[in-house]
Amino acid sequence: MRSKILEELYINKGNYISGEVLRTKLGVSRTAIWKHINALKEEGYNIETIPRKGYMLLEMKDKLLPKEIEALISNNAIGQQIVYFDSIDSTNSYAKKEANKLKDGTVILSEEQLLGRGRRGRNWSSPKGTGIWMSLVLKPNIPPTEGVKMTQIAAAAVCKSIRELTGLNALIKWPNDIVINGKKICGILTEMAGELNEVNYIIVGIGINVNTDGFSCELKEKATSLFIEGGKKIDRRELVVNILKNFEALYNIYIKDLNLDETLVIVKNYSAILGKEIKIIQGNLEKKARAIDINNEGLLLVQMDDGSKELISSGEVSI
Ligand code: BT5
Description:
Layout (H helix, E strand, L loop, with lengths): L1 H10 L7 H8 L3 H14 L3 E4 L3 E4 L8 H8 L8 E4 L5 H8 L8 E4 L20 E8 L10 H18 L4 E3 L3 E4 L2 E12 L4 E11 L7 H4 L5 H5 L5 H22 L3 H9 L7 E6 L2 E10 L5 E4 L5 E4 L3 E3 L1
Parallel strand pairs: 3-4
Antiparallel strand pairs: 1-2, 4-5, 5-9, 6-7, 7-8, 8-9, 10-11, 10-14, 11-12, 12-13
């Protein structure tokens, strides 16, 4: 009933619809309508209530509400179902917990994360209303070994979208960071579950600092936001939709015949590290190398000081 009421408010966006009209159309009591409206307000919808006039839905540019995103997503399969939270521990944790019940292509969004996660148990700072904290639930029919490529597809999609929407020089720091002017603007956390030959689900977690206007002392040196870099506030809904569309396009090409070429063009073109001297950190080991290529599997090819070459499949890279 709540979503039906919301539907009616959207049809009449900018105009009042009376409780009486809603009652007759939807066949529920006015008290029930009043209760649902209050619940919608609590979810974050900006609804004006005036006695004898009724209810009016107002513009909510600063929220990532599902209806607002659905209106822009058209026929993109990823993002047809959106689960939205005002606050949650972590969108990835939620997606993992509920994965079996969630449809392929479901997107989880939250205005804030209280326990946002990075890789290897690290924290991801996710303050309220300033960023995009989202997880994509994917159930492709691919072998589990292919799962790692999702990070490259997500990085390519985010980098392309940021460039398209802001014109900023976003670059990909293999494997899972997007940076601008050497500082991290986005991190990606891909998690999966599967059997020996089959993927049950893949969760692609994407965190982007969008309208953040400052960071803690600890992050100031290494983190930045689109607002800090471009000096303009960005409509987060537009960015979410653009990313989901770019992601789907690259993902579909890949899923068709497990060919990563299209993604690799972006990943290599906008690489922050190719051709550069880098440090690879794997556990307690740190080695210097030159990043020379990203291969068809999305792995990083490096050349050591002694001329030998090595393929890197995970770990930290610093410039
Ligand atoms: C990542 O890990 O970069 C993956 C981040 C994934 C976040 C998304 S948000 C939606 C979804 N739900 C989740 O719970 N997570 C995903 P890693 O490469 O390990 O980088 C983590 C490091 O980045 C931290 O140790 C900090 O140094 C730094 N960091 C933390 N928060 C940051 C932020 N908001 N911006 C830039 N750097 C940050």
